[in-house]
Amino acid sequence: MARTTHRLSFLCGRLVEGSWFHLAGFAVIVVNAVALGLETYDPVVVAAGGWLRAVEHACVAAFAVELLIRFGASPRGFLRDGWNVFDLANLLVGLVLTALQEAHEDERAAVKRPARPGEPSVHEQLAALRTIIGDLERRLPVVPAQPLIRGGGGEGDRDQGRSADDRSAGRGQLADRDGAGVVP
């Protein structure tokens, strides 16, 4: 087992030392940057969104393989190199963002898709609900806010024992200074 590990480390070290390895890594960075830049233009995303996503996934896979090879070349010193830590952080952020984007798109697709065949989707139900609420707002009359003045029967324990005249005499005191009818 030790001989296999040593041999694998030796092979990874030879790969990392090759000038083509660094050129290939740089090429992947450029391709990924172009793909990410193109994703900011809506017409391009509509025309080639699937291809751009495939290129992005391929670049992330290439970055992961590159890091695995670098780790295989120097397992003990991998995290001591600042560039390796930087690349690892970028890879992890890219993986998390890609996973979140995929989850968000799946969630959006689920909202637009009906739960059962023949039923409206959640998106369609919300649109219908907005229409109903808009119709209700247009058809119902506007009712001004009335001051809340307590009086009459059924006032609870506080008014028990007071006559109707006592309660009506104290009504003027129940409103605040603005006459908004706040009851203490």
From TrEMBL:
Protein's organism: Paractinoplanes aksuensis
Domain of life: Bacteria
Location relative to the cell: Membrane
Annotated segments matching region Disordered: 144-184
Domain (Ion transport) ranges: 19-106
Basic and acidic residues bias (residue ranges): 155-184
Keywords from the UniProt entry: Membrane, Transmembrane, Transmembrane helix
Name listed for the protein in its UniProt record: Ion transporter
Membrane topology field: Multi-pass membrane protein
Database matches in InterPro entries: Ion_trans_dom (IPR005821), Volt_channel_dom_sf (IPR027359)
Family matches, as Gene3D superfamilies: Voltage-gated potassium channels. Chain C
